[in-house]
Design brief:
Distance between the termini: 13 Å
CATH architecture: 3-Layer(aba) Sandwich
Number of strands: 11
Shape: globular
Helix content: 25-40%
Strand content: 15-25%
CATH topology: Peroxisomal Thiolase, Chain A, domain 1
Strand order of the largest sheet: 3-2-4-7-1-8-11-10-9
Structural class: alpha/beta
CATH superfamily: Thiolase/Chalcone synthase
Length: about 400
């Protein structure tokens, strides 16, 4: 690779899968989505539940999840920092496996985000409840809209709006190629985007992710175990994580993500640069999240994301494949999305993406060989970056 020595191939992702049903599934609980996704990922890997000795999840306690799955883990990790958690879990699984704490790590997520009937009240003593909610900062659309408004002021409203539209439309085109996507049969034009209702200015409806019921799981293990698994291993070459605030009002810079630090660290640990990457998978809670992440990871400079994605560059047929499943914007988003980024990245690297399968940017005759996966959580708060490769 161009930036350094070849990273060690000692830990691999060997299984990925979603839950059986996705979208609106009122007859299934969050734990059922967990269980289905875990079962399907183990089957994908050619492993069984008895092989699992490490359990990683967020949103639910690993106590509840492992009990429901019938697993007694030797290692448990409940790190929960929003939708980036499951990308961060990959690095934690790598560390745990290398330390000898476990050998087969199950990262699992399930959430009846759309169909949950009861809502648990928040803690009124939390800082957000005390210092932001009384002033109308009551959820992700509003919090992210505040940050995006600042970006528009800094880099231009019309330019930013067009960049957001490019991302929304191109992501929907990928979803139209994915039979599992919620919006598979619903096309979107630029007029559809601009005419969609307002949610929290400057966000139209199609700037915002879906709210669905679904689950996804990832299996991580050693190179030795990977050799006996059912599918080609996808190697974890580099990873990094961080967060720099909780409340949006405490974000150091509303126009810059902490991925500006995790990206270079993950690339450095993988011995790669952005120029080595064939496929980019970015958490798209909002179109604005994608723009900030492209800049933070170093694919373009600050304020340049709109120009970078212009002309449907990230859509099918473009030279920069991005969020090829349809993303959180058009594929699925049960509340936390990072696990689904990993599922799609692995499938693309294996050449299993069907009609939406992309080719390598550096070698168009081959399937992609490398991917960066970047998850964002909280109110643009946390980031996990992972670099993956085959071969």
């Amino acid at each position: 690779m161009t930036s350094g020595a070849r990273a060690e191939r000692d830990i691999a992702i060997v299984g990925v899968a979603e839950s059986d049903e996705m979208g609106t599934v009122p007859n299934k609980s969050s734990l059922q989505h967990h269980a289905e996704a875990a079962h399907n990922a183990l089957e994908d890997a050619g492993l069984s539940k008895s092989d699992v000795d490490g359990v990683f999840t967020a949103g639910f306690s690993t106590l509840a999840t492992a009990e429901y799955l019938g697993i007694q883990p030797g290692y448990t990790d409940n790190t929960s920092v929003g939708g980036s958690s499951f990308v961060i879990h990959v690095a934690h699984a790598v560390a745990a496996i290398r330390a000898g704490f476990c050998e087969v790590a199950l990262i699992t997520h399930g959430q009846a985000g759309r169909s949950t009937r009861g809502r648990v009240g928040g803690d009124p003593n939390q800082p957000t409840a005390q210092y932001e909610a009384p002033f109308g900062m009551i959820g992700p659309p509003i919090n992210y809209a505040l940050a995006c408004s600042r970006y528009m002021n800094q880099y231009g409203e019309d330019k930013t709006r067009q960049g957001m539209a490019e991302i929304a439309v191109s992501t929907r085109k990928w979803a139209n190629l994915n039979p599992k996507a919620v919006m598979h049969e619903t096309p979107m034009s630029f007029d559809d985007y601009h005419n969609s209702r307002w949610v929290a200015w400057p966000f139209h409806l199609f700037d915002c992710c879906l709210v669905t019921d679904s689950g996804a799981s990832i299996i991580v293990t050693t190179a030795e175990r990977a050799r006996n698994c059912a599918k080609e291993p996808v190697w974890v070459l580099g990873a990094a994580e961080s967060h720099d605030h909780n409340m949006i009002s405490m974000m150091p810079d509303l126009t810059s993500l902490i991925a500006r630090e995790t990206g270079p660290k993950a690339f450095g640990r993988a011995g790669m640069t952005t120029g080595d990457i064939d496929l980019t998978m970015i958490y798209d809670s909002f179109t604005y999240t994608v723009m900030l992440t492209l800049e933070a990871l170093g694919f373009c400079g600050r304020g340049e994301a709109a120009d970078f994605v212009a002309g449907q560059r990230t859509a099918p047929g473009g030279d920069f494949p991005l969020n090829t499943s349809g993303g959180g914007l058009s594929y699925t988003h049960p509340g936390m999305y990072g696990s689904f980024l990993l599922v799609e990245a692995v499938r693309q690297l294996r050449g299993e993406a069907g009609e939406r399968q992309v080719k390598g940017r550096r070698d168009p005759s081959q399937n992609p060989k490398t991917s960066v996966v970047n998850g964002t959580g909280g109110s643009l708060s946390s980031t996990g970056t992972v670099v993956l490769a085959t071969g």
